[in-house]
Amino acid sequence: MTIICPSRRQLLLGLSGAAMCSIIPSKAMASRSTTGARTLSFYNRHTGERGAGTYWLDGNYQSEALNDFSHLLRDHRQNQAAPMDKRLFDMLHALQDHMSIQEEIHVISGYRSPKTNQMLSNASSGVAKKSYHMRGMAMDIAIPSIKLSSLRDAALSLKLGGVGYYPKSGFIHVDCGPVRSW
What we know:
Order of helices and strands: HHEEEHHEHEHEEE
Strand content: 15-25%
Strand order of the largest sheet: 3-2-1-4-5-7-6-8
Largest sheet: 8 strands, mixed
Number of strands: 8
Distance between the termini: 70 Å
Radius of gyration: 24 Å
Low-confidence stretches: 1-9, 11-31
Mean pLDDT: 87
C-alpha cells in the first residue's frame, strides 16, 4: 500500500474558492502594538510648567507633542532644548501602564546641555561626565503619590534601560541606554 501525502502547495491549489475563503479571515485585525494612543503629562519642578499630550497615535509618533515635550524638558539653566529620544517616552508610558497609573510625572531633570552637565559634574560625583541627559535619553523623575522605592522597582522590572535610585534627593533616574541599575 502506497500512502500519498500531498504537498502544502498541492493541497492549497486543490481547495475550491469557497474553501479558501473560509480559512482566510474576513476582517484583518490590526496589531495591538500599532493601534491606540500613548499619552503622558509632565510637571517641570524647576520652571513650574506643565504639559500633556498624546505623543503616539495608531503607530505614529506625533511630532507636535514630541516638540512640546522637548521644550518642557529643556535645560532650564541655559534655556536650551534638544529633541528627546522617543524611547524614553515609551519607557515612561510603559512604567505608568505597569503601575496602572496615569498621573503627572514630575521632572527634576530632562535634557542637559554640555555646559550644565559639566557644571553639575564638577559639583557632584553623582553626575556622569557623559550623561545620557546630554543626549536627550534620560530623565530624573518622581510621582508624588507613588513611593519612590516602588517607582524604582517598577522601572527595574521593565528592563528597558538604566535606573538610578536617589532617595535622599527624592527622584529616580531613567534612561533608554543599556539595562543597568545603581
